[in-house]
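Re: weekly structure request thread

Next one in the queue (537 aa):
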Amino acid sequence: MVLSPLLAAGFLVAAAAAPANAADGVYVQGTVTAETSQDVYAPQHSVYVELYELSGSGDVIRGIGTGMDGSYSLYGVPPGRYRMHFEPNGLVSDGLTPTWLGNTPYEAQSQIIEVGTTNVTGLDAQLEIGSSISGIVSYPQGAEPPVAAAFLFNTTTGEWERSAYRADVDAAGNYTINGLPAGMYALRFGDSNDQALVSTEYWEGQELLYASTPVEVAADQQLTGYDGAVGPGGVYVGRLAGPDRSATSVQISMAGYPDGSDAVFVVNGQNFPDALGAAPAAARVGAPILLVTPSAIPASVKAELTRLTPETIYVVGGEPSVSLAVETQLQGYATGGVIRFKGVDRFHTSRLVADYFWGGADNRTAYIATGLNFPDALSGAPAAANEFGPVILVNGKASSLDAATATLLQELSIEKVVVAGGLPSVSAGIKSDLDALPFILESYRRNGADRYATSVITNQKSFPLADAVFLATGANFPDALAGAALAGAWRAPVYLVQQNCIPSAVLGEIGRLHVRDVVLLGGEPSLSNNVLNLQVC
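Done, posted below.
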């Protein structure tokens, strides 16, 4: 028998040959054992088994607890690809590590289950006695005790795992986070709810993730003395804005790159198509996006280019978007020259950008968005950057995926695609063709009832951790275009909001992430002072 390449590599779990009624789906089953003492294992009950689909929304479609003998069966599973997670019940098994199928704490490295028309058995898991981190956290008198959270970092993908390991701080300030697998963590202390009544701080008194010291945890290790302190709560809400869209892009650049930048992206600020794929690329190389007109460089942008002293300026778009005269002027600001990405259309341009900045790299994820409108691509850009992937534009109204995009995805070694937006934005035919690509293991669609809800759902799936959120109008593109690059570089989400208020779901996201900063992109009338005051719609 010849195994498929995925089976031979161990990425897929072969199905057993038991018969099943395909119309009702099949069952998947296995047994969970847990470490009871050093290298001694026994069946473990009350472990919650979750089956995540690798298509559609990517949510849990089945879940069940293990029985007293450690076994489980999930029935009515439709054909498709899945990942499986095992979560011990802390009330009966405190200290055991959760795991993904394949006995790994990392979702991206877990085994993928291929379900067809036959039952799948032998999906066993083994839980280990985990390590721990403990310490004392001081907090303001009269406040509720905070929570300690350890966020596991996947050094292979550069992403944070979707769920943190948490522990309540008791009244005396003591905490212990149990059940930790070996790995690198960000240790953060913050409010026990979404009210921001106490501040969010990292271990060693750092306010921001990038400045914090990671905690290295080895197997069977009990780390003590990891103390912290939180102060009075509150979220800083500010605005980055200038008198016009180009000046706003300058303010965003100054905030993100006070010491200059080796690279700068220049795009047309009067139209969006060519520039939509620029934000993840700019975030990838740590560069701002500055907005020009087709025929001129505004004075504010000239001054900012002088301050930034870039080596390379990347122009995204052809001569109708940014003229040759502007390109010639830009040569005087770039010590190493100007590189222009110019395709036959907006879709080709986005592919050129993706190929240049992601070609030859060890890639995993790409976002697919329509190039016929801007909202989904703009809110998807920071999410793509957070997952180290490009945004590739397609003609969302087309009935099928174009061959050039399919070829590019394969050349970039993409295994996971995320379609940004619903059926009005990207057709069912395009999504179906993406699903059918033999090298794509995961194919999701992130969409909500409108552009605002889509931005929430996109960011919920991509950001388990952030220090800031950016808010931009969902009615126009320039402010979000420049801001998406900075958000991507900061690994922070952009939420689309209305001119005079914030959707309640966006406010909920600010609470979920426990951010310190909320940054409005653009002045009035793009975003009114009601938004500055976080007034809910």
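Residues 346-358 form the longest helix (13 residues). The radius of gyration is 24 Å.
Next request, please.
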